[in-house]
Design goal:
Elements: E1 16-17, E2 44-45, H1 48-54, H2 62-68, H3 74-83, H4 92-110, H5 121-128, H6 135-149, E3 153-157, H7 164-175, E4 182-185, H8 193-201, E5 206-208, H9 218-227, E6 230-236, H10 243-251, E7 255-261
Parallel strand pairs: 3-4, 3-6, 4-5, 6-7
Antiparallel strand pairs: 1-2
Helix pairs in contact: 1-3, 4-6, 5-6, 9-10
């Protein structure tokens, strides 16, 4: 029997939660390198089109980003964005394809019942038709989304305290050869938020585990490892903080990467610089 897929119309009628970001008006809401402790929340994007239109104002105009989300329809969201076109990010034409694919990926991660992971690209193309986007653009999005569907999901541990140069050098070596990938992370106060924001700057889809109120636990670690294809651990030499993560990753037969570093001469280390 042929596999049945949900309607292609679901692509533009299904809501999802965006990444954890600072609300408009909060401290640091418009600064990429702002304080990592500034409040964050996930916003509801009622359609993929709302995500696409709102991204035209990210991250420099979070007020306009949020205003797009109040639009009751795709047509109204597009109308609002065109009205404020002078405030679009200057590199929009360069990043818009990655924006669309990141939105499709988040929808896929959060709404598995839609079947986007396996739905034929021709059906997804049909689902995007109401947006009236150039066919070359849509075809390019499908190529990138197809690559994402088979790309690795990478869970990273210890990046919140490891030195900047260690984290940056190691991650660039890991992800540079990849056309795309997914960051698997927590979302509580001990999350490596600078790493998280670096991923968002590059429109890397993020799969969250737990909630902001969730405590770090063995169960949470197990959920992350189970959701990942690859595990990367940053560990201080002679420390044993992540031995249980390493053991679990090996037992689960996940691709494993361990980066050891010496204790910093002063301070407590840093986080990856946004590049």
């Amino acid at each position: 029997m042929a596999e049945c897929f949900p309607s292609s119309a679901d692509l533009l009628t299904s809501s999802f939660l965006g990444p954890y970001a600072r609300p408009a008006g909060s401290r640091g809401s418009g600064q990429l390198a702002a304080e990592i402790d500034a409040p964050r929340r996930q916003q509801v994007y009622i359609t993929l089109a709302h995500w696409f239109e709102a991204a035209k104002f990210m991250p420099h105009r979070p007020d306009l980003r949020d205003s797009v989300l109040l639009s009751p329809s795709i047509a109204e969201a597009n109308k609002f964005a065109r009205k404020h076109q002078e405030h679009w990010r200057s590199d929009w034409k360069l990043v818009r394809m990655n924006v669309m694919v990141a939105g499709m990926a988040m929808l896929c991660l959060q709404r598995p019942e839609l079947g986007l992971r396996n739905q034929p690209c021709k059906d997804l193309v049909a689902g995007m038709a109401p947006l009236g986007l150039p066919q070359s653009f849509v075809d390019g999005c499908m190529t990138k989304f197809e690559a994402w569907r088979s790309a690795p999901r990478i869970a990273i541990f210890g990046a919140e305290v490891a030195p900047d140069d260690i984290v940056g050098t190691r991650l660039v070596k890991i992800v540079s050869p990849l056309p795309t990938w997914t960051l698997v992370t927590t979302c509580h106060r001990r999350t490596a938020w600078r790493l998280h924001d670096w991923a968002l700057v590059h429109y890397v889809p993020v799969a969250y585990h737990g909630t902001p109120a969730t405590r770090q636990s063995r169960a949470l670690v197990a959920a992350m490892v189970d959701a990942a294809d690859q595990v990367v651990v940053f560990e201080q030499r002679r420390a044993k903080r992540f031995d249980h993560v390493i053991a679990l990753a090996k037992a689960s037969k996940r691709k494993m990467g361990l980066e050891l570093y010496d204790p910093p001469e002063s301070g407590t280390g840093g986080q990856i610089a946004i590049i």
